[in-house]
Amino acid sequence: MITDFKNQNTPIDIEIVRGKIEASGVPSIGNGTIREIVKIVNEIQQASGQKFIRMEMGVPGLSPPEVGINGEMEALKSGVASKYPMLEGILPLKKEASRFIKMFMDVDVPQECCIPTVGSMQGGYATFMMLGNLDERKNTILFLDPGFPVQKQQMNVLGQKYEAFDVYNHRGDKLEAKLESFCSKGNISGILYSNPNNPSWICFTDDELQTIAKIADKYDIIVIEDLAYFAMDFRKDLSMPGKPPFQATIARYTENYILLISSSKAFSYAGQRVGILAISPELYERRYPCLKERFGSDRFGYTLIYKILYSFSSGTSHSAQYGLAAMLKAANDGEFNFVESVRVYGERAVAIKALFKDAGFDIVYSMDLDEELGDGFYFTVSFTGMTGAELVERLLYYGISAIALSGTGSEREGMRVCMSQIGSDEFDTLKVRLEQFGRDYSD
Questions:
Q1: What pLDDT is recorded for position 443?
Q2: Which of 41, 57, 255, 373 would suit a FRET pair with 296, their CA atoms being 20 to 30 Å apart?
Q3: In terms of C-beta density within 10 A (0-12 exposed, 13-18 middle, 19 or more buried), how is residue 408 classed?
């Protein structure tokens, strides 16, 4: 725990923050998980009466779309709450999910291969379990970091192995050799990445996706594409259904893919815990002898739905499926521009990034190959002379909360800044607190 301060007069009382850190029992709060940071900040706020600028958790800061709410309310009024949902999902959602993938990704995935899950986190967890049981020689997932820390926690809970590398220094022409160095060993069952990336916000190009697909096909590896921030690369207008440009995807270049499509960020529907797990039709029908031995069925898609997802939660919330189906239909029909509804995150990023820079912070991941990084849901910052963990802990005394990059698999020091919970009415407070921090700790 940090005990030295250049200025004892911090925006949040030092003794309150110190006391809550000690009471938390977390060995290094600066390296704490997202939920550990959330918990301690809630406690400090309650004890101090001072409101924090919350940057630690990717919670949507926008109201859910009316079309989704109305779709779910109509379903509830019709009595779906008393009925178990079918494990494979309701037909309206499966149909609209298939259409959505075609309209906004220009990829054909049959509705049979589109399965609702209790958020993308459940979809990822089920996928990790599947991939760990396909081939006894392949027992490891490769993470293209930085990434979402909880996915590695899921691997730990499952007792499965993973390897990882920070992809930032291995982009473009360097990517193939780096992937080869891991995949040629023969133990990699899957490759996972997010696109746009959480937390760096880099976006893989089509050339890079083709490289990943090439390696996946060469070594028979399944690619898991986490689309938590679907179409949120605001440098391009990805909002028009059926018209290019489309959301970049591995699905154009290989049959060995699984897509995790979230409703949490792009549709501001995080609380209903509903997402889509989309499997390539070829992989859906593929048969694996090891699955037969472990689960009693060898068909990939069938086993995923009726053996694994069934055992998790016996289906995905019935009414939430109708809400998501309504939003997807409205987007597919051109009646709801879901991208425009979340573009405000990029606008916030421009303003908030400027406040950090003016206070003496540096941007950690600043370039996307030869382009300037886009502005979106996250960006990353560092402060000279501090590790990411130290920066996160010190900022708690200034009423600012975030998570360290170390937990995301980044090789760089710094922290992740999330836009979603910061309203424009908080910009002045953030400015004052950052400026004081900069004065207190600049050499």
A1: 73
A2: 255
A3: buried
Alpha-carbon torsion (210, 213, 219, 224), positive or negative: positive
The whole-number pLDDT of residue 6 equals 79
- Write out pLDDT tens, residues 355-388: 999 999 999 999 999 999 999 999 999 999 999 9
Structure tokens at 50: 């001072």
Kindly report, residue by residue over 289-338, the tens digit of the pLDDT: 999 999 999 999 999 999 999 999 999 999 999 999 999 999 999 999 99
Pairing of strands 222-227, 188-194: parallel
| DSSP, res 423 | -
Return the percent helix, strand and coil in the chain, to nearest 5.
50, 15, 40
Helix ranges (H only) for 81-160 are 91-105, 119-131, 149-158
Neighbours of 434 (CB within 10 A): 23
Structure tokens at 235: 């440098």
Looking at the chain, the whole-number percentage of residues with pLDDT higher than 70 is: 100
Burial of 60 (0-12, 13-18, 19+ CB in 10 A): buried
CA-nearest of 197, 53, 190 to 126 is: 190
Is beta strand 415-418 parallel, antiparallel or unpaired with respect to 140-145? unpaired
Contacts of 347 (CB under 8 A, 6+ apart): 375
Q: What is the CA radius of gyration of the chain?
A: 22
The position carrying tokens 């028009």 is 240
**Distances 230 to 6, 128, 234, 257, 319 between C-alpha atoms, Å:** 43, 21, 11, 16, 22
Full-model pTM:
0.95
Give the CATH number of domain 66-332; options: 3.40.640.10, 3.40.50.300, 2.102.10.10, 3.40.50.2000: 3.40.640.10
User: Looking at residue 280, what is its pLDDT?
Assistant: 98
Write out the two tokens for 154.
């899921």
Fold of 14-51+343-441: Aspartate Aminotransferase, domain 1 (3.90.1150)
Helices within 134-193 (DSSP H only):
149-158, 175-183
Domain map (residue ranges) of the chain: 14-51+343-441, 66-332
Residues comprising the chain, all counted: 443
Tell me the two tokens of residue 396.
Answer: 């708690």
74's CB contacts (< 8 A; 6+ apart) are 322
Residue 8: the pLDDT is 85
In whole angstroms, what is the distance from residue 240 CA to residue 242 CA? 6
